[in-house]
Amino acid sequence: MEGLRGKVAIVTGAGSGIGQGIAKRLGGEGVKVIVDYVGSAAGAEETQRAIQQAGGESEIVLADITRCDDMRKLVDAAWTKFGSADILVNNAGMEHKAAFWDTQEADYDRIMNVNLRGPFFLTQQFVRRLRSAKRTGHIVNISSVHEDMAFPGFSTYCCSKGGLRMLMRDLAVELGPLGITVNNVAPGAIATPINTALLEDKPKLDALLKNIPLGRMGTPEDVAGLVAFLVSDAAAYVTGATFVMDGGLMRSYHEQ
Ligand code: BGC
Fold it and tell me: What's the mean pLDDT in 153-158?
């Protein structure tokens, strides 16, 4: 895709799932990728190997996006190693299932810290560096259909993704004059580790697939294609929008 070669991207949660798919795709397009991970180093190494095989460059950084020091470290790594950070993909996320009345304070804090506070302050670090270097850039948040759609049993997740939607809208306006675009990609059911429980529960999975007009779960590669477009020159005039990628799930309603 046009305008990607030689750019530098930070992808959070790039050791598995959607983040891994995005990092591989951008790496394959000639983007230098900071592969952020927390947890399994093996996943991050797999991402790096795939990028190398595609002829790309990357750097693995262990950084926990719930810690401001780590966020600084991530942005510094991009500037030090590759001389810039033009693209930020706020992908890292988690969900927690609990009835609203049983939700614990610690679970609320954990989900909001990873899914909303992390993108907020990491984006701040990313923008501060771009602004002082007088450079433009692209931010893509991996949100969810649940930035808009109810998900009973996942109130913390919905709050965090709804917040991410408004953060994107606000920043599109605040950062537009700096030449920085901000958009959300809202995936539906994508086959990744966040969905392990669902993938292992055949009746639940079948019920979900019935609600997806395209008849299958999405893949990290599906999401990665849209992200690559949004950070390319082809999307230079696109900001402030959510792009749903859900196989039609959000539009689907059936009477039994
Ligand atoms: C959630 C999945 C869920 C999907 C569709 C995603 O944001 O992470 O657990 O299956 O939305 O509801």
Answer: 98
Out of 16, 18, 91, 95, give the residue to mutate to test ligand 1, the one with the largest number of ligand atoms within 8 Å of its CB: 95
- Distance from the CA of 133 to the center of ligand 1, in angstroms? 38
237 is catalytic: no
69 CA to centre of ligand 1 in angstroms: 30
Question: Which are the contacts of 96, defined by CB distance < 8 A and separation ≥ 6?
Answer: 103, 107, 110, 111, 154, 156, 157
Task: Look up the pTM and report it.
Answer: 0.97
Compute, in angstroms, the gap from residue 17 CA to the centroid of ligand 1: 13
| Confidence at 253, pLDDT banded by 50, 70, 90 | confident
pLDDT digits over 159-172, tens only?
Answer: 999 999 999 999 99
Give how far Cα 207 sits from Cα of 48, 166, 198, 254, Å.
36, 31, 10, 12
Three-state secondary structure call for residue 247: coil
- Which burial class, exposed, middle or buried, applies to 100 when counting CB atoms under 10 A from its CB (0-12, 13-18, 19+)? exposed
The Cα 226–Cα 176 span in angstroms is 21
CATH code 3.40.50.720 for 8-246: yes
CB 195 less than 6 A from any atom of ligand 1 = yes
